[in-house]
Structures are given as C-alpha cells and as structure tokens.
Amino acid sequence: MPKITIEKNLFCLPWTQTILGTHLEGKANFMALDWLTRVNYDPAMIGICVNRAHASASAILSTGEFSINVPSSAMVAITDYTGIVSGKKVDKAKLFDVFYGELKSAPMIVNCPVNMECKVSQRVELPTNYFFIAGIMNIYTEDRFLTDGKPDVKKINPFVLTMPDNRYWSIGESIGKAWHEGISIRDRLKQES
Ligand SMILES: Cc1cc2nc3c(=O)[nH]c(=O)nc-3n(C[C@H](O)[C@H](O)[C@H](O)COP(=O)(O)O)c2cc1C
Question: Ligand 1 — pocket residues by CB below 6 A?
C-alpha cells in the first residue's frame, strides 16, 4: 500500500489527559492540557506546551509554578469544561476542592488520583506556544490508587485524547510488558547471527 501525506496537524496520537493548575492573579485556575511529556529522568522533569494566549500561560510566566493533575475517566465532562472556557472570564477554581503542597502557586485538585507540583526551570518561546520545562517537586496520590506501593493504572483509570477526531478514550487492556516483549526477538536474532 503506498504511503500518502496528510495535512500536518492531522496526526492521530493519543495524549494523556491532564488538567493544568496555576495561580492567576493570586487565585487558582485550571485548564485541560494534553501536550506534555517527561523530559528528564533524574531529577524528574516534565515539559508542557501552553498557547501564549491562554490565561494559564500568563499565570505561569508570573509565578514560575504549576501543577499537573491526572483526572479519572469519571471526570471527563468537568475536564473538558476547563478546556472550553478561559479563566479570564470564568472562575474555574470553584469547580474543584483544591489543596497545596510545597509550592504556593501550584493549586492541585483533590479529586484527581495523581497530582504533581512543578517549578519552571526553562522556557522555550515557540511561534504560538510556550514550552515550559519544569522540575517535579512532589507527586501526590492516595493509597487506594496503588498496588504494591506503585501507581496502578487500572485504579487511577486515566483517559486519553486523540486528534483530529477530538475524542476521549479510556485505557484498554494491557497487551504486553515493556522492556520484555522484545527479548525473544533479540535472542533469536543473536542466535541467527
Ligand atoms: C481536551 C483539550 C486539550 C487541550 N490541550 C491543550 C494543551 O495541551 N495546550 C494548550 O495550550 N491548550 C490546550 N487546550 C486548550 C485550553 O485548555 C483552553 O483554551 C482553555 O480554555 C484555556 O484556559 P485559560 O485561558 O483559563 O488558561 C486544550 C483543550 C481541550 C478541550
């Protein structure tokens, strides 16, 4: 089958759905955020991409802090809401019970199974977005989301977004173990060589 090219914004990669928490003029604000990635192992660092026009971008510029909250699938409607209205016009803080860790400007959502408080260390200025690179200061969860002391994806029950169909998806069944499924191929090719 020959490959065809499609419009450059029409990729279809699933992103983990999160809610970005910031302090906007001294008050908590939240927005749906999908463009995020781990960027360093030790110290643990994360990178997030925020459109320059969003209230959340100005908030991070002024405080240098933010939180990443991982909602469960049960929170799909409220998460979507935070992505369709701006904190410039609407008080999104009143939607959630909020708590704070070490940082004073990184409000976190009690109902989200996982929360991270982050401190910005670098900012990359892109044509429409800022890419903020931040150190993860602390990750919070509850015992009920852990199995053998580690986060359990089934219990956390996060969801993902795909574009351009703009749909939310729950996580399906596990299809294998990472750093493990490829071992048989590695060993077979080693024997053949
Ligand atoms: C599902 C979803 C994912 C989104 N992901 C991002 C993102 O990764 N980066 C971004 O800048 N905006 C993203 N947005 C848009 C913002 O969440 C939205 O414009 C929000 O209203 C901005 O709020 P604020 O002005 O209070 O910061 C997303 C919106 C939705 C609905």
Answer: 29, 31-35, 49-51, 54-56, 80, 83-88, 161
